């Protein structure tokens, strides 16, 4: 069915009159009538009852109108997405995220995005989990990644992935053969800490919070790269989500094991965006791109 014929049919059904539809669309009434008759011939049944008061849909006409409404809506949405693609060829996007995502996940995603949108530029900043919400809400950043928790209505999560805090260690560590590590087992080994407070969502597990507070780190650093190097050198264990160590885990250098505590394993990281705020075409495209990448993480 030709798009014009669908539009003529929809407008006639909406206005209940071929003449009114012709005036609205600025086409000849005979042209609209001809298209409607052709549709009726194709379906082999009347689509309208011709009444003295106007045109009224038959049951078959109701079915066709429902199909047309969906089809034209999908077409309009496709046109908008194509327009977005054209407009997104250049521009700047700002992102803020918890540090672990800047090491592996975001660089991979941005490199893939750059292949399709080479003229787009980025600023990517590591910030504390609590600051992500504020910066996205106050328009200091287009996109954020942080631990999922209750948020104000000014922001919302576009996509989420499971991201429990667990134990990161060398592949040959004695605990590497465990399916899950207890707090007592982890406490028997030196601890390497990243500077800064725990995400507030970690409060969901009071036992983990008490365990973490009781530890005296062998090393504290605000550089996750330094902590990674120290883990590889066997200086101790560290407690992170696996998302900052995807490459090392894939290559078999390091392993990640969950804690044997149910609450800490419910933690999630999400793609945070402002609610109801218009964003630039490149930012909108990157949001969709990152949401797809988050979905892929769920099956790794």
Question: What can you tell me about this protein's structure?
Answer:
By secondary structure, the chain is an alpha/beta fold. The chain folds into 3 domains: 3-86, Winged helix-like DNA-binding domain superfamily/Winged helix DNA-binding domain (Arc Repressor Mutant, subunit A); 88-162 and 268-297, Periplasmic binding protein-like II (D-Maltodextrin-Binding Protein, domain 2, 3-Layer(aba) Sandwich), CATH 3.40.190; 166-266, D-Maltodextrin-Binding Protein, domain 2, CATH 3.40.190.10. Helices cover 45% and strands 22% of the residues. The protein has helices at 3-15, 18-25, 29-43, 59-87, 99-103, 105-116, 129-137, 183-187, 206-214, 224-232, 246-250, 281-297, and strands at 48-51, 54-57, 90-97, 119-126, 143-147, 155-162, 166-170, 191-194, 219-221, 237-240, 254-258, 268-274. Strands 4-3-5-12-6 form a 5-stranded mixed β-sheet, sandwiched between helices. Helix 1 crosses helix 2 (18-25) and helix 1 (3-15) crosses helix 4 (59-87). The longest helix has 29 residues, at 59-87. The radius of gyration is 28 Å and the shape is elongated. The mean pLDDT is 89. One of its GO terms (molecular function) is DNA binding. This is LysR family transcriptional regulator. Residues 1-58 form the HTH lysR-type domain.
Which features does this protein show?
3 domains, D-Maltodextrin-Binding Protein, domain 2, about 300 residues, elongated, alpha/beta, DNA-binding transcription factor activity, single chain, five-stranded mixed sheet
CATH class of the largest domain: Alpha Beta
Assembly annotation: single chain
**Global Rg:** 28 Å
Strand order of the largest sheet: 4-3-5-12-6
CATH topology of the largest domain: D-Maltodextrin-Binding Protein, domain 2
For the termini, the CA-CA separation is 43 Å
């Amino acid at each position: 069915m030709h798009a014009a014929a669908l539009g003529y049919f929809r407008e006639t059904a909406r206005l209940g009159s071929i003449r009114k539809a012709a005036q609205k669309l600025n086409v000849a009434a005979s042209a609209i009538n001809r298209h409607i008759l052709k549709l009726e011939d194709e379906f082999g049944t009347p689509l309208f009852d011709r009444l003295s008061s106007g045109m009224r849909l038959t049951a078959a006409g109701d079915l066709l109108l429902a199909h047309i409404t969906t089809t034209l809506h999908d077409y309009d949405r496709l046109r908008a997405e194509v327009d977005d693609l054209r407009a997104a060829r250049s521009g700047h996007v700002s992102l803020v995220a918890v540090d672990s995502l800047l090491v592996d996940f975001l660089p991979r995603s941005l490199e893939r995005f750059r292949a399709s949108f080479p003229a787009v530029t980025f600023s990517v900043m590591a910030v504390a989990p609590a600051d992500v919400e504020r910066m996205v809400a106050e328009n200091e950043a287009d996109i954020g990644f942080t631990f999922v928790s209750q948020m104000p209505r000014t922001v919302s999560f576009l996509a989420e992935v499971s991201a429990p805090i667990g134990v990161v260690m060398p592949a040959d560590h004695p605990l590497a053969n465990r399916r899950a590590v207890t707090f007592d087992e982890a406490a028997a080994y030196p601890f390497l800490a990243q500077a800064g407070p725990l995400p507030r969502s970690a409060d969901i597990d009071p036992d983990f919070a008490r365990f973490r507070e009781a530890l005296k780190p062998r090393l504290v650093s605000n550089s996750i790269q330094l902590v990674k190097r120290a883990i590889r050198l066997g200086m101790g264990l560290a407690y992170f989500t696996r998302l900052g160590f995807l490459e090392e885990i894939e290559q078999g250098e390091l392993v990640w094991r969950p804690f044997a505590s149910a609450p800490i394993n419910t933690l999630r990281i999400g793609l945070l965006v402002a609610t109801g705020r218009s964003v630039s075409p490149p930012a909108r495209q990157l949001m969709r791109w990152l949401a797809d990448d988050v979905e892929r993480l769920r099956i790794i």
